[in-house]
């Protein structure tokens, strides 16, 4: 299994096997996603930038599990709404490439919001 669609189908079957379909509305899935992102956030809270780049051992495993939860909920939301996540991500990349042209960032280390504020 290596596609988001296959992952969604696997988890959808997991839900069906447990009779949880009634709980799988987009609203509920977004709320669950938010909870998982919060759990991921907790693993990085209070770390320095360098510490956050060098996680290992049990912490790295915990991060992997929370990232997996986030991905599963993202794919379920997309599945429920019939959205192709990969196509949507590619489309968003194209929008961002137009919105934030690379040459505008070559000479100065602007953050996206700083560039946006300068080009209103």
UniProtKB/TrEMBL annotation:
Pfam families: MazG-like (PF12643). This is Nucleotide pyrophosphohydrolase. It comes from Pseudodesulfovibrio sediminis. The lineage of its organism: Bacteria, Pseudomonadati, Thermodesulfobacteriota, Desulfovibrionia, Desulfovibrionales.
């Amino acid at each position: 299994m290596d596609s988001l669609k296959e992952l969604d189908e696997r988890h959808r079957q997991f839900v069906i096997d447990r009779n949880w379909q009634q709980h799988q509305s987009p609203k509920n899935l977004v709320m669950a996603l938010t909870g998982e992102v919060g759990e991921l956030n907790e693993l990085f809270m209070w770390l320095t930038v360098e510490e956050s780049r060098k996680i290992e051992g049990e912490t790295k495993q915990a991060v992997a599990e929370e990232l997996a939860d986030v991905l599963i909920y993202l794919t379920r939301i997309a599945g429920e709404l019939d959205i192709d996540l990969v196509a949507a991500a590619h489309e968003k990349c194209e929008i961002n490439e137009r919105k934030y042209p690379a040459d505008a960032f070559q000479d100065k280390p602007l953050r996206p919001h700083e560039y946006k504020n300068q080009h209103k």
